[in-house]
What does this fold into?
Amino acid sequence: MITWLRRNLFRTWWDSIMTVVFGYVGLWVIWTVIEFVFVTGRWEIIQVNLKLLLVGRFPDELMWLVGASLTALAFWVAAVAGGSKIDLNNVQTIPHRLFDYTRRFGLIVALAALLIFLAADIAALLLAFQVLGGVVAGRLVGLARRNLSVLGAIPSIIWHPMLASPAIALVLVTLMESTLEEWGGFLINFYMAIISIVLCFPLGVLLALGRRSSFPIIRLVTTTYIELIRGAPLFVLLLLAGVALEFFIPPSIAPDAIFRGVTVFTLFTAAYLAEIVRGGLQSIPKGQTEAGKALGLSTTKITYLITMPQALRNVIPAQIGQFISLFKDTTLAGAALNILDVLNVGTAITKQQDFLGQGLIYEALAFVALLFWVGSYVMSRESQRLEKRLGVGVR
It folds into this structure.
């Protein structure tokens, strides 16, 4: 230990000074955060307004829809994860598996426990058990797909949309069931991100293929679209969707703000994702395509079976980074489209009569930041796990 410290932190007098200075700054920051969280922070503003921060003024009689959609999403993710193939040479023991689950999902469980504690309501605890039941059911379905030949024979192109359809349908029903004046909070950011990610991925892949197409008109159209969208700021596009759209469409038939936001996020992210996928396709050696042609495969089969799987595997980090960016950018919809998202709610609750002028904006923003950080960190960790499992960067 002493040798490591001397070699890495105190090699020279300049390294020693930098270590002491930045060590002091780091300890001060850590102590300030701990003091704010456990001593000086006034978290009653979060506890009183927890429902507003999570779901806005969503009607209590329709809260079962929120629980059903969250359970369906948990079932979908667990079924997809449970249905993936397992390397028999790398089977984990039960303690190692529990440690792996804790490392992967411990933050989500801790956040759920914090929300249940702040809610202090039996309904929140029942919702947590309901979502947990969806996870267990999804894992069982994934296990059945691995072990039962009947389910294993279903093509992935049919199996995955079949799993995703109930979850996406329930999310859409939840968003459309209540008016925009009642619906809001963090779940609107979460649902907008989920729907946009699901829609932008196939569109981005098609745009990448179109930009590499041998047909000039297809290549010109897709290239023009990608360059125009990537050259415009996302906030400006959201403002155009919120303001300028009604100059061309009567307000009576114009889509609501949530639909506009999802459309803009989908089209915008798809353009960036197309460039990411195109980079992955360019990283595939030409010998792969030539080998497919030598086997007599068509261009479609070469793309679907050979080049595209390798390209998507090579650009997993960039894809997940773009999805994380999309998740965080959903807060822009609140400012551009007047959606009562979690950031708008967090700033609005500080103006309530009980908390007016007390400077509790820091507590509200810290809670909002915690929600987004947990979601982004879990996505990042799962991306790293997927890269390791698929051997990205390993030859």
Q: What stands out?
A: The mean pLDDT is 86. The chain has two domains: 59-178, 180-395.
